[in-house]
């Protein structure tokens, strides 16, 4: 029953492609999310599902 749910909001563990920092982000972010280390934009808010600009390590429920 591990069906992939595209409509559900998820937290994602992502890795910054610039500095390698890992942090947890929300994939329906209301505003852009920056890397806490280098300031690179990791999540670009698009009003709905966000555009993830980092490497996704893991999807968290
Ligand atoms: Zn970074």
UniProtKB/TrEMBL annotation:
Cofactor stoichiometry and binding remark: Binds 1 zinc ion per subunit.
UniProt GO cellular component terms: ribonucleoprotein complex; ribosome
Cofactor: Zn(2+)
GO BP of this protein: translation
InterPro entries: Ribosomal_eS27 (IPR000592), Ribosomal_eS27_Zn-bd_dom_sf (IPR023407), Ribosomal_zn-bd (IPR011332)
Keyword line: Metal-binding, Ribonucleoprotein, Ribosomal protein, Zinc, Zinc-finger
Keyword Zinc among UniProt keywords: yes
Highest taxon, organism lineage: Archaea
Binding-site positions, Zn(2+): 16, 19, 35, 38
Pfam families: Ribosomal_S27e (PF01667)
GO molecular function: structural constituent of ribosome; zinc ion binding
Annotated zinc fingers (C4-type), start-end: 16-38
HAMAP family: Ribosomal_eS27 (MF_00371)
Family designation: Belongs to the eukaryotic ribosomal protein eS27 family.
Assembly with partners or alone: Part of the 30S ribosomal subunit.
Descriptive protein name: Small ribosomal subunit protein eS27
Taxonomic path: Archaea, Methanobacteriati, Methanobacteriota, Methanomada group, Methanobacteria
């Amino acid at each position: 029953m591990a069906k992939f749910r595209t409509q559900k909001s998820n937290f994602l563990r992502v890795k910054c492609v610039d500095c390698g920092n890992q942090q947890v982000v929300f994939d329906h972010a209301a505003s852009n999310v920056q890397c806490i280390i280098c300031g690179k934009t990791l999540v670009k808010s698009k009003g709905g599902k966000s555009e993830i600009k980092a490497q996704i390590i893991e999807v968290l429920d």
